[in-house]
């Protein structure tokens, strides 16, 4: 049976992926009757996105892979599931949950405009940023047992969920348009309360496991840096990163603070006695993984504090050569004889 692909009749396979006619020179032209044709192979298919474990030395273990663009992986509090923002090839972007034991994805939101998920400490709900159905980027939360749709928590200009308090009753978020770090109580009055707004643009907070310290990003002289301060009572600030940093994540025991600078992952030891002190940043590894650049955490740490949950993007490759095909029309007739 003859099928038609790319405009040419072929038997079971494509003969020519992509043919490009070169611009004419010195009055010459290329036509179907010519025996010489420039052939540009089609661009390679984009490699799959990869959800990975990356240990403290940079060694990778693939968890899952698939199409689209994956960003912002988050580990559930019990370590059994992962939430990932997936940009589908059709342009829709939604939150999906991956079950580590079963190796299965399930789509949590279906608005086409939802991302930036943060698990509540009990694992029963996830806070998300979505533009539907509120009509502008607002704060929602959704049950993680798939029992219902996402519910609007706060209509805002651009509220990005960032960190839950340990008891799960309050959520910290960054207001990207109005600025500042804010707090709200989903099961209370839901009125936002300003935590801090600094001249250096404090944003993307991350609370320590005991809830007594808050790490966040500020821009000093145009460069992002990781800063730590006591919480909820604000005391002195401690600059943790050196020469730039963002995406701060605490270890599960609060004894280390991780941050990224471009493709580099750093660790800083934290000592609390007799008062809080931070060690010098240590470079753990360098690698190209999904990163927010602006400061929001686009990775997570395992429950055992020995590996990171990260995403590696597939890198599409364009055609790297132009081939000149001689006697191409005769060859095409030989490969695909005409049926009458």
Compact overview of the structure:
The chain has a domain at 3-43 and 318-335. The chain is built from 1 helix and 29 strands.
Descriptive overview:
- The structure is a single chain.
- The protein is mainly beta and 340 residues long.
- It has a domain at 3-43 and 318-335.
- Helix content is 2%, strand content 45%.
- It has one helix and 29 strands.
- Strands 22, 23, 24, 25 and 26 form a five-stranded antiparallel sheet that branches. It has a four-stranded antiparallel sheet with strand order 5-4-28-27, with no helix packed on it. Strands 6-7-8-9 form a four-stranded antiparallel sheet, with no helix packed on it.
- β23 and β24 form a beta hairpin.
- The two termini are 13 Å apart.
| Weakly predicted, low-confidence segments | 1-44
Roughly what is the average pLDDT, rounded to an integer? 83
Helix fraction bin: under 10%
Distance between the termini: 13 Å
Largest sheet: 5 strands, antiparallel
N-to-C order of helices and strands: EEEEEEEEEEEEEEEEEEEEEEEEEEEEEH
Shape: globular
Strand content: 35-45%
Question: How many beta-strand elements?
Answer: 29
State the helix count.
1
Radius of gyration: 26 Å
Which structural class is indicated by helix and strand composition? mainly beta
Pick out its properties.
single chain; 340 residues; mainly beta; five-stranded antiparallel sheet; 1 helix; globular
Lay out the secondary structure.
Elements: E1 3-5, E2 8-10, E3 36-39, E4 49-55, E5 60-66, E6 69-75, E7 81-87, E8 93-99, E9 104-107, E10 114-119, E11 125-130, E12 138-143, E13 151-154, E14 159-164, E15 171-175, E16 181-184, E17 193-196, E18 203-207, E19 213-220, E20 223-230, E21 237-239, E22 246-250, E23 256-261, E24 264-271, E25 277-278, E26 282-286, E27 300-301, E28 307-312, E29 323-326, H1 328-335
Antiparallel strand pairs: 1-2, 3-29, 4-5, 4-28, 6-7, 7-8, 8-9, 10-11, 11-12, 12-13, 14-15, 15-16, 16-17, 18-19, 19-20, 20-21, 22-23, 23-24, 24-25, 24-26, 27-28
């Amino acid at each position: 049976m003859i099928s038609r692909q790319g405009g040419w009749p072929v038997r079971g396979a494509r003969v020519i992926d992509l043919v490009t006619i070169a611009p004419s020179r010195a009055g010459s032209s290329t036509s179907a009757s010519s025996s010489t044709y420039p052939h540009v192979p089609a661009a390679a298919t984009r490699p799959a996105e990869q959800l990975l474990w990356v240990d403290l030395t940079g060694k990778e273990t693939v968890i899952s892979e698939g199409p689209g663009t994956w960003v912002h992986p988050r580990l559930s509090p019990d370590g059994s599931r992962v939430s990932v923002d997936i940009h589908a090839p059709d342009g829709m972007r939604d939150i999906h949950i991956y079950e580590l034991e079963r190796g299965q994805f399930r789509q949590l939101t279906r608005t086409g405009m939802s991302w930036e998920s943060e698990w509540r400490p009990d694992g029963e709900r996830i806070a998300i940023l979505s533009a539907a159905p509120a009509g502008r980027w607002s704060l929602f939360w959704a049950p993680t047992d798939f029992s219902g749709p996402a519910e609007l928590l706060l209509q805002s200009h651009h509220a990005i969920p960032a960190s839950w308090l340990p008891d799960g009753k309050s959520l910290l978020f960054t207001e990207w348009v109005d600025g500042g770090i804010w707090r709200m109580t989903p099961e209370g009055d839901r009125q936002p309360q300003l935590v801090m707004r600094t001249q250096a643009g404090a944003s993307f907070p991350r609370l320590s496991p005991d809830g007594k310290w808050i790490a966040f990003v500020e821009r000093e002289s145009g460069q992002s840096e990781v800063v730590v301060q006591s919480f909820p009572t604000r005391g002195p600030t401690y600059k943790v990163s050196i020469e730039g940093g963002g995406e701060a994540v605490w270890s599960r025991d609060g004894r280390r603070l991780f941050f990224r600078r471009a493709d580099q992952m750093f660790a800083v030891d934290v000592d609390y006695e007799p008062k809080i002190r931070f060690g010098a940043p240590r470079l753990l590894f360098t690698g190209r993984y999904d990163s927010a650049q602006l400061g929001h955490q686009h990775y997570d740490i395992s429950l055992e504090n020995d590996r990171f949950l990260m995403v590696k993007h597939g890198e599409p490759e364009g055609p790297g050569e132009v081939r000149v095909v001689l006697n191409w029309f005769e060859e095409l007739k030989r490969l695909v004889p005409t049926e009458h």
